[in-house]
Design goal:
Elements lengths: L2 H17 L19 E6 L3 E8 L5 E7 L6 E9 L15 E9 L3 E11 L9 E10 L9
Parallel strand pairs: 1-7
Antiparallel strand pairs: 2-5, 3-6, 4-5, 6-7
Length: about 150
Amino acid sequence: MKPISAFLVTLSLLLASCASGPPAPRPPQPLLTAADHGKTVHLIIGETVDLQLASNPTTGYSWTSLRLPEWKVVKQTRHAYQGPDNTGPGQALVGASGKEHWQFLAVAEGRTGIDLVYRRAWEEPQETDQKLTIEFVVTKDGKEMREE
């Protein structure tokens, strides 16, 4: 093969390999809700996941943490209450339900989770209290973490 032909073949192979580019980004994590109780969420370091739960603090009911994620693995970056759409800032319609929002950031490889319970803080725990458990598995590359 002539040197020019070999160069052109090598150049075309090199350009073809570069055309594929970096892997496509993963789609954003879906919004987690009470329906995700018992779910395991797989995250890559740097990804965030949002959790939204119905809440009614004007009647005393709110979500209380029984276990928070280990902050060295998954860090809570946001927690806020949003009242019903028809209220302004600082206003609360007694008896009207709103939503609690959390956002979590995957910061290091590992496993951790969150356990929440929905009840009035001053009342004794009941078997009928609504509970939410979500496990987080964080990896560097999205590949399944090996058990050790």
